Amino acid sequence: MMWAKAPVVAGTAPHTEADRRSFLSDGLRPVECTSCGTCVLVKKNSAHHTSIQWQTPTDRCPEFASRPKPAALLDTCSKLRASIESLVAEGLLEVPDG
Length: 98
Description:
three-stranded antiparallel beta sheet, 3 helices, Ferredoxin
């Protein structure tokens, strides 16, 4: 089954557009992997939920490049996750209600 993003409909209510923008981009901040230097945009939605938007092809990450699965099925590599968790532990990446 393939999923497609819902189209933006002309005349969408302003609050709906604001919600969409908030969900997709507000609160994202650049985070660089301390291992390979790959930069992604990250937002912590909760202690257990992290949104990651890749800005570069995943094959620039050595861990992704070595995996046999298509990178689109994987959320992140262990070293990038450690970089994100380190920022959270240092209080440099905010976790709502956490």
